[in-house]
Amino acid sequence: MSAASATKLTELDIAAARAGLARGDFSSVALTEAHIRAMEAARGLNAFVVETPERALEQARASDERRRRKEPARRLDGIPLAIKDLFCTQGVQTTAGSHILEGFIPGYESTVTAKLWDAGAVMLGKTNLDEFAMGSSNATSYFGPVKNPWRRADNKDLVPGGSSGGSAAAVAARIALGALGTDTGGSIRQPAAFCGIVGIKPTYGRVSRWGTVAFASSLDQAGPMTRTVRDSALMLGVISGHDPKDSTSSPLPVPDFEAALGGDLKGLKVGIPKEYRVDGMSAEIDALWKRGIAWLEAAGARAVEVSLPHTSYALPTYYIVAPAEASSNLARYDGVRYGLRVPGESVDELYQNTRGSGFGREVRRRILIGTYVLSAGYYDAYYVKAQQIRTLIGEDFRKAFETVDVMLTPTSPSVAFAIGEKMDDPIAMYLNDVFTVPTNLAGLPGISVPAGLDGSGLPLGLQIVGRPFDEATVFKAAAALEQAAAFTTRPTMLRGA
Amino acid sequence: MALDRETVRKIAFLARLKVPEEELAALTGELDNIIGWVEQLGKVDTKSVEPMTSVGKFKPYMREDAVSERRPREDILANAPDAEDGFFTVPKVIE
């Protein structure tokens, strides 16, 4: 195959690639080879911790063979995807971006990745992330920062957002047709916005967490990152559903999310939460938000202002709940059963040495915060208090959703920043997630859709938040937004030359 | 200042995290900043508010308490940084 047509294969979206494969225009091997070449050519982004080209080609050949035998096509048959290195993949190193798990090779497969492979998908590799998914810039990875394929005029290297930054960069740079991310406080939606792609965090319980390295178990959800809303609907349909291995996964049936797309938004009420007009939000983001409202109204929806009074408490609540759960979840890394071991004279010393050198700075910081807020004498003042405010935040949304069907907000208060910025101020970094954290605390679905560029030419995202288990309406509104925004600008890296 | 060095030393031990003495001062400052910032939650009246322990409305799924899969011992030990005679090893714990 010529270089020109190979380039074109990486320009397809999942729906178009699926159609091309069905028509026999190209094979999965050709499609996969084109993406492997793109992955190799873009190594400068540092988007992958591990590349798995042999496995990809093996899966692609198996897909082509199924087609030759005229087996019914599976939902993602022959589609090359990238997997955040937080999902356990049998026989393939899984690190969570941490030194403490370097060299860990799971003997089992996470439920969501197993569902992707059962649906015929092809794994290109494991993508880089903030260590244990703790970060908004991808700068806390033990394996080095990921670069955003977008650049501003000063040509500085920008962060892709985080924590699913490698996944976002891979999809934006046309290395993968789609990727799997996870979102605990915005880790799918914020990098999607920073890289100009679509990403959805489903309702808590929609997707199994089994086999996903745990960060904060009451908040973590896996979700797709793609270049179109339709592709996210398709991928989410594949990974959703009850799993006997995760008691928090919902027994509700999984609707056909793709079928929800299209049509106008007549009768849809869109809430505009007034508390999301935060201090310091750029005029450009405010203007884009207003444009988003106009787009949804032009599609037939009606916008109404709603109030979520406890919004400003969401971030501090999150920074008690999430570290508390993390300190408990990360207690398993002890240098005995798997991962790094740094010897010591006693068992305590073995633990302390292993964990002290295995965890990076941000992870250590969060473990200590979590240990503090859970410790005797502070538990009620911090942890119980945060859980009470979490109840109030959930109530805010429940009341607002009595009068509206979805809400529209910006995804992030800023565009991608330069690598190294905000690193010495944890709270400034945490503010990246001010618009995404509340939906995690309330367990709601939220999607980010690329909606425009700021003055420096960097992508901006808008977020649609929905009722629990109503991803179908979220997708429908997101598709209308996507159509109106007509975002077609390609990352700087792919332009010219 | 809510957090002093002694408290940080104590929670670092509770978390079994070795913190080098020279990092303690900077770390104490960072943690104190974060704790100071989350203390704004004290302003919210939460009298008679139930703490949220689960975001879902579903009763947790219960499955039969039975072995559903068996993995060979070698498989379990494969990732152990130090294993001997089919066991994980730790430094001597009983004198």
What is the overall number of helices of chain A? 16
- Gross morphology of chain A is globular
Strand ordering within the main sheet of chain B = 1-2
**Structural class determined from secondary elements of chain A:** alpha/beta
Strand content of chain B: under 5%
Structure characterization notes:
The complex is a heterodimer of chains A (497) and B (95). Chain A has an 11-stranded mixed beta sheet, with helices on both faces. Chain A is of the alpha/beta class. In chain A, 38% of the residues lie in helices and 12% in strands. At the A-B interface, helix 10, helix 11, helix 12 and helix 13 of A face helix 1 and helix 2 of B.
Q: Can you give me a brief rundown of this structure?
A:
The complex is a heterodimer of chains A (497) and B (95). Chain A is built from 16 helices and 11 strands.
SSE inventory with pairings:
The complex is a heterodimer of chains A (497) and B (95).
Chain A: H1 3-11, H2 14-23, H3 28-41, E1 48-51, H4 53-68, E2 80-84, H5 111-118, E3 122-127, H6 165-172, E4 178-183, H7 189-195, E5 198-201, E6 221-226, H8 229-239, E7 269-273, H9 283-298, E8 302-306, H10 314-329, H11 347-358, H12 361-374, H13 379-400, E9 406-410, H14 426-430, H15 437-442, E10 446-453, E11 459-466, H16 471-485
Parallel strand pairs in A: 2-3, 2-4, 7-8, 7-9
Antiparallel strand pairs in A: 1-3, 4-6, 5-6, 5-10, 9-11, 10-11
Helix pairs in contact in A: 1-3, 3-4, 6-7, 10-12, 10-13
Chain B: H1 5-14, H2 21-38, H3 73-77, E1 83-84, E2 87-88
Relevant terms:
heterodimer; A: 497 residues; alpha/beta; Amidase signature (AS) enzymes; 11-stranded mixed β-sheet; 38% helix; 12% strand; B: 95 residues; mainly alpha; 2 strands; 4% strand
